[in-house]
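Weekly structure sync, notes
Attendees: PL (lead), two postdocs, one rotation student
Agenda item 3: pending single-chain targets
PL asked that the sequence for the first pending target be pasted directly into the notes so everyone works from the same version. It is reproduced below exactly as submitted, 271 residues in total.
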Amino acid sequence: MKNVTLVLSDGTKFHGKSFGYDAPVAGEVVFNTAMMGYPESLTDPSYAGQLMTLTYPLVGNYGVPPFTFEANGLPTFMESDRIYASAIIVNDYSEEYSHWNATESLAGWLKREHVPGITGIDTRELTKVLREHGVMMGKIIFDDEPENIPEADYEGVNFVDRVSCKEIIKYNEGAGKKVILVDCGVKANIIRCLINRGVEVIRVPWNHDYTNMEYDGLFLANGPGDPDMCSDAVDIIKKQMSQTTKPICGICMGNQLLSKAAGGEIYKLKY
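Predicted structure, written out during the meeting:
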């Protein structure tokens, strides 16, 4: 394992070792307090561009499940088709793993998908720093390459456009009521939950004009980045709201876009 340093934008440094793909990376440092579910979190498109800190101390002990897909095209055990987080930061990485459904180690998966992972970090202290200061930018630098300093590709980037589908995808066709799902970075389980409720899901790109399509309800999905970068989506929601009274549900990014369409203002919270 190579020695690495996590440098936050306020100059705070944390020293650890690399257990994933050996490449420097920069992004927004965030923390996740879940006790399990790192395969799901890493493949959640909402983490695009972010360095994800896991507060639970032991990570990797149950390995990684297979990347299999259901008949409807949804991944069986993941939330999308690949890892979207830019890096993972843990306190204690378990090199040995044991689980009936595991097919590889977390380290092996990270290396295969070219995603850095660092261990040996005091994640409790790091989380306290983030809680005091708020989410901040950070860089993972390899100690043997001190001049190789990455720059974050984050500010002014439309991450929703990066993670959204590029064409219309239909699930459960002919099942009953039709739901338009605006893909801002949707998790697979959201689609699965809608399918399980007996509706046809029509998944459209974030900036697709669906106002002339046939549907019974509108679902605005979660996603990464800044909602102010998604003015096209807001304009389409405004158009839809002016034409019909069909029900609308928004989660996370989708709820923020709905708020903007209704005349609200958006600002970034501390965390």
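Discussion points:
- The chain has a mean pLDDT of 95.
- Residues 231-243 form the longest helix (13 residues).
Action: rotation student to compare against the earlier draft before next sync.
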